Amino acid sequence: MRGELFHPDRGDISLDKVLHALSDPIRRDVARTMHRDGPRVCGQLSYPIAKSTLSHHLKVLRESGLMTTEVRGTTRVISLRRDDLEARFPGLLDAVQVTAPAPEEASRAS
Amino acid sequence: MRGELFHPDRGDISLDKVLHALSDPIRRDVARTMHRDGPRVCGQLSYPIAKSTLSHHLKVLRESGLMTTEVRGTTRVISLRRDDLEARFPGLLDAVQVTAPAPEEASRAS
DNA sequence: TATGATGTTTGATCATCATAGAATTTTGAA
DNA sequence: TTCAAAATTCTATGATGATCAAACATCATA
Fold first, then answer.
1. Structural domains for chain B
2. What CA–CA distance (Å, rounded) separates A52 from B92?
3. What's the pLDDT tens digit per position in A21-73?
4. Which of A21, A57, A95, A96 lies at 20 to 30 Å from A89 by C-alpha?
């Protein structure tokens, strides 16, 4: 936990990686939570998975360019890179229901 | 090639599967081509991959709900399920640059 | 009924991924 | 300095995934 963590520059955020990151429901939920509640400390996230697994998901989110991780003492604050994503892929966060009204999982459609 | 091919109902199209399907650049390009040129015959698609690999990608696209495959004699006509996708996940196809101006790969952003 | 054209399916291989437990790193506080 | 808390990294494993070559199925037509 020495050097700085990798974050891609805005212009280097790739659609391939972003879509792959978003294809996992837990990662989408983390993104949604960051959007809804603002920056979070990792420990405040709770999912039925091991800590190391969550850590892996956070790494995928960070390296894809979806969020930033800021080291604050012994904790880490994660935030959605909303502006960068909106600039690079307008409408995407809305479309995947990260930012969005999106009440229940199954939006009536058919 | 006997029975009918599986296509999920509009309401059963899952975001997980759609995003996974779209996370591959070849599959995104197939979707973009269908949108730009209308329904295509598979053989008109040309990528530097084996036929069987392309067939696999088309299956992923079809089973995710992104396109339909219609058997026409010895060929198959594939089409983008634009309306279904728009109804289920508004703005998604635009955001992932399937339907969109999207001139070059690297949209100036940073 | 052969034959060719169009795709798919099968079988195999190598890579990537989600997952978890254990060990490790870092920091803050007793 | 010792210890607890927070989170990552390491290591391993089972599941998917992308890929290709070869075999197969279907249809149209000579």
1. 14-98 (1.10.10.10)
2. 31
3. 999 999 999 999 999 999 999 999 999 999 999 999 999 999 999 999 999 99
4. A57
